[in-house]
Specification:
2 strands, MftR_C (chains A, B), 10 helices, DNA-binding, elongated, HTH_TetR (chains A, B), mainly alpha, Homeodomain-like_sf (chains A, B), homodimer, DNA-binding (chains A, B)
Chain lengths: ~230, ~230
DNA sequence: TTTTGAATGGTACTGAGTACCGGCAATGCC
DNA sequence: GGCATTGCCGGTACTCAGTACCATTCAAAA
């Protein structure tokens, strides 16, 4: 057990140093030296300094891709909800490592941005899958696919962050519940929940203002006369 | 007209060079030289090489913040939908410039990532606004706020990208329609737990009836007991 | 005329990331 | 054993973004 792989030592060294003196204050040279390897070796194992924190996003993305490709029956949203569980489970498996990473990304803007970009890749994958699955090239279906993908990802992130913060004793149950919530947002396989042409959408809210003062706003929302 | 400001010349030079030889192949030195200024001056006007493409995201973000702060009546979602229109209008005002930027971000990964990060900032702002507005600290309300923010942003991006690609002759109408769609996703009381006495409660639902036909019923409901 | 201040340009530095080369095992085959 | 191949490693040198600092210029204000 005397020698973990160079890759593992690099990751370990990086986390220790980032904790000790902060991310920006740590150079790649520092990490390599601490791990007892050359600088070149660092870049052989990790594409960039940020990469040492997020080693297997690519692998995970591929996992999701495969899972979606192997999806059987059910709706697109169900398949995607199912796939997104995998991501959550992956983080939970990482356990403490995921929490340390979260602590880092919360502090360092560059890392947070990297995380956001990764999440966007998942969302894109989902959007494309849903769009393909629906096979409906209309503008409305396209928007719907976009909304679905965004909702699934948002729900996942919500539960994940809660767990990372230690606020969620049972993230699996929570993500299932959240996914049910998302599914409930999009009723019906294809058809939009609109009655006939000329249907009316009314919004419910509470305000201190008088009803008549609200009428113009209401009318605009409903789509009578587009108002600028 | 002999001398546009250094800032403008830099932006102009950057776009020309990016078109000519690509983003990565263009150095900051190239841009500065072409604009006839020193390298230092470039970084005085733009924080980074990427910044010259996205000059006023910060300003726009502040604009949105102000708009949300000044919001009058309506639900949180309505306020946010309203604010997001501003963003779309800003892009439309930019016109061809926005399209050139889109062409660049489509080709250059680094720029696309930058764009994604910017979008995430809007989404965060919206989420916080909705969350504050709801004033409901439960987990379920928090998830709801997250979903709403994600949906609004997704819908906006959808319309924006369509317009940028030249697929949308009337993006304003489309964004209004898309926002109605988003509103329809989130029915039920989004009311704050506390409202002043004598306030007005309105409920959101979809019906096949004409709005004017509904008005008497609405008034009766509102006039009597605030109903959920 | 003098002073002040803002915009500029130049120089030098840090640090990430890339390219390339040479060394050094371990494994293969003859 | 001798020998070539392959894969991992370390070192050097380079490019370029971004920062820090200083000197200059020029114009408005005093």
């Amino acid at each position: 057990m005397s020698k973990p792989t160079a890759r593992a030592r690099l990751a370990q060294a990086a986390f220790v140093l980032f904790d000790e003196r902060g991310y920006e204050q740590t150079t790649v040279d520092d990490i390599a030296e601490r791990a007892g390897v050359g600088r070149t070796t660092f870049f052989r194992h990790y594409r960039s300094k940020e990469d040492v924190i997020f080693p297997d996003h690519d692998r995970l993305l591929q996992l999701i891709r495969d899972r979606l490709a192997a999806t059987g029956n059910g709706t697109a949203l169900v398949a995607v909800s199912d796939a997104v569980r995998l991501v959550l489970l992956h983080y939970i498996d990482e356990g403490d490592l995921a929490r340390r990473r979260y602590a880092l990304t919360s502090k360092v803007p560059a890392l947070r941005e990297r995380e956001i970009v990764s999440v966007a890749r998942y969302q894109r994958l989902f959007r494309e899958f849903i769009s393909d699955w629906m096979g409906d090239p209309t503008e409305s279906a396209s928007l719907r696919a976009e909304l679905m993908a965004a909702s699934v990802v948002a729900a996942h992130n919500h539960v994940l962050r809660r767990w990372l913060r230690g606020d969620s004793p049972d993230p699996i149950a929570e993500v299932d519940e959240a996914m049910r919530e998302v599914l409930a947002l999009f009723p019906g396989p294809q058809s939009r929940p609109r009655a006939a042409d000329g249907g009316t959408t009314v919004a419910v809210f509470r305000t201190g203002e008088d009803f008549d003062a609200l009428l113009p706003t209401l009318r605009r929302l409903i789509g009578g006369e587009p108002e600028r």
